[in-house]
Amino acid sequence: MTLEARDLVAGYGDKAILDKVSFTLKDGEILAFFGHNGAGKSTTLKAVIGLIPVQEGELLLDGERIDKLPIGARLDRGIKLLPEGRGIFPDLSVKDSIDIVAQRNCTPGGSKIGRDDVYALLPNLAKLRNSVAGELSGGQQQILAFALALLGSPRCILLEEPSVGLQPDLVEELFGKIREICGRLGVSAILIEHKIASAMNIADHVMIINSGRLVFNGSKADAETINLWGYF
Ligand SMILES: Nc1ncnc2c1ncn2[C@@H]1O[C@H](COP(=O)(O)OP(=O)(O)OP(=O)(O)O)[C@@H](O)[C@H]1O
């Protein structure tokens, strides 16, 4: 899988927020995406998933233009968004949540990630099958949201600050799981984070955005040689 953004311009109404954002992401790679509040991180993810129109530039998935496709068609192609605030069904049990999304995403045939695969990948979630999602801890809810995104044929998961509200040890545990599962399944991820050190631990690439423009886009190794804070 290759997800490529070429000179993306996108925003709200007539107003452009993103100023020619370009990046490339391949199978199993994690892209850590940093920037101060209001810099354009969420706007980038919204343009990738199709919540706002791409005004200029191109978005390609394995060479296919997807920037004019509706959200549903991008979801069907395996681009998934985990919005800030989690995106779970608070009143449903873990089992029912998983079953509903599995039914929607796992039509018979094909090599899809189903409910048993998700429980095998996330054994601690399997133990919570009968718990009500809204009553889980923040970390457990975030794991459930990640599990829901994995059902079907995910290729690129867009994670919007998954660490919000989590204790530091739970952040490390969640990020460890994301790294392990993305690597094992060959699923890529774009990770918006303010917890920079934790995100750097699991990243392959780093991007920093400032006022809608990318001011750094390089490998983790390159990012480690610079003072990241100087780019904010
Ligand atoms: N729905 C909207 N309508 C109009 N302008 C918006 C909308 N959402 C965001 N913006 C503006 O777009 C710019 C970029 O916002 P964006 O949410 O992408 O920033 P961000 O980097 O994700 O910040 P944060 O870390 O606070 O989430 C900001 O100037 C913001 O005010």
TrEMBL record:
Transmembrane segments: none annotated. PROSITE patterns: ABC_TRANSPORTER_2 (PS50893). It comes from the Bacteria. SMART domains: AAA. Residues 3-232 form the ABC transporter domain. SUPFAM superfamilies: P-loop containing nucleoside triphosphate hydrolases (SSF52540). Involved in beta-(1-->2)glucan export. Transmembrane domains (TMD) form a pore in the inner membrane and the ATP-binding domain (NBD) is responsible for energy generation. This is ATP-binding cassette domain-containing protein. The lineage of its organism: Bacteria, Pseudomonadati, Pseudomonadota, Alphaproteobacteria, Hyphomicrobiales.
